[in-house]
Amino acid sequence: MFGGFGGAGFPNNLIQxxxxxxxxxxxxxxxNCGTRDGELGLMFKHGQIRHVIASFPGPHSTHxxxxxxxxxxxxxxVPQGILxxxxxxxxxxxxxxxxxxxxxxxxxxxxxxxxxxxxRCLLELPLHADYALIKAEKADALGNLTYRLxxxxxxxxxxxxxxxxxxxxxxxxxxxxxxxxxVVTPAIFVHRIVHAKGxxxx
Amino acid sequence: MSDxxxxxxxxxxxxxxxxxxxxxxxxxxxxxxGFGIPTLIAEYLPPGLTVYFHSxxxxxxxxxxxxxxxxxxxxxxxxxxxxxxxPGASIFHQADAHLMTRGGHLDVCVLGGFQxxxxxxxxxxxxxxxxxxxxxxxxxxxxxxxxxxxxxxEHTTKEGAPKIVRQCTYPVTALACVHTVITDLAVxxxxxxxxxxxxxxxxxxPTELQSLTEVRLIIPADVPFVxxx
Lengths: 202, 229
Known about the structure:
The structure holds 2 protein chains of 2 kinds.
Chain A: H1 12-21, E1 26-29, H2 41-45, E2 49-54, H3 62-69, E3 74-77, H4 80-92, E4 97-99, E5 113-116, E6 119-124, E7 129-140, E8 145-146, H5 155-160, E9 162-173, E10 192-195
Parallel strand pairs in A: 1-2, 2-3, 7-9, 9-10
Antiparallel strand pairs in A: 4-6, 5-6, 7-8
Chain B: H1 3-8, H2 14-22, E1 30-33, E2 52-55, E3 59-65, E4 83-91, H3 94-102, E5 108-112, E6 115-117, E7 122-123, H4 139-145, E8 149-152, E9 164-165, E10 180-182, E11 186-191, E12 194-200, H5 206-211, E13 225-226
Parallel strand pairs in B: 1-2, 1-5, 5-8, 6-9, 8-10, 12-13
Antiparallel strand pairs in B: 2-3, 3-4, 6-7, 10-11, 11-12
Helix pairs in contact in B: 3-4
């Protein structure tokens, strides 16, 4: 899983480290598929991603689009809010949920459909990851996190839905420096903290 | 008038369509605006009206776009454009943002459209045969959950084909979700008994509108109000 939306809240240093490491055959869960060479674009450029689960690859996801056209990468479309809820189901130990989203559309193919409360709905299954790579503003030494403005987006959700969550932060502060009621992601969901100067692609 | 002559006849501009849609928003409403004409609506709010614009990346209470020098790239809308906040704004994660869209918590959602059917089905996420992967984004969540969904679009394609159709031929976003369609020719309400003409563009006759609409319109006995913008 890779956090980020609209250029904000991407773990760009972690993505660059994955590129340097050269790991291949990754299944990526992310809202978008990169912006030219930025964000996940770099990994598509280096052929590291085999399958992607996304809601909106994006108009400038050039490396993804090339790989997709060449059938080097497969894509599962998930509506954006359902992407969130499938991750939350995984985080919450739920085995699935029913939703009206997607009924009668292309994405209903292969999904169980039933009627609940008089409404047609589809069964959606949880989405779990081995790793979540996320971006936060501050972490304390335990891993309690805060986010800056709309750079929050998918990051707190992904943090809860992976076996191992690695967070890239602008600043690490002492334990207790973040008022407890300001913590957005509790440290229980965070396994590695990387202090890195932000890289941003505008 | 022949169909080809009709296609040359002046229609409302995108700005006028946006202005017309802005009138549908109640004071204090929480509103999501989609891509296309809907993004213009924020610019044409009647004076004195406060609307809390919602963005799927976790903002309620978006203000105007950021001016040069004021941009903060951690504060962007769903189109990646740096924005500002109005007093009373709040920020939350993407799941809560879509809980608001899907759960019917927003007062009005306004989306663009390729086709709307007489039953209120919406097609707005993919053009058949288009290059590339396309993308759904938040459109399906927003359309499925909207308490009131307005679609703003041109009344016909550039070639003159009706976009208000009996059955969508483009890939569908959600079924029976659209309440009102505002086009460059008319304001139409979709109800269980059919598509009702509420307002019509200046200098257009209901018969002319009908000839550019695949669905049989329900036209009130008195002459419909003319859209003034």
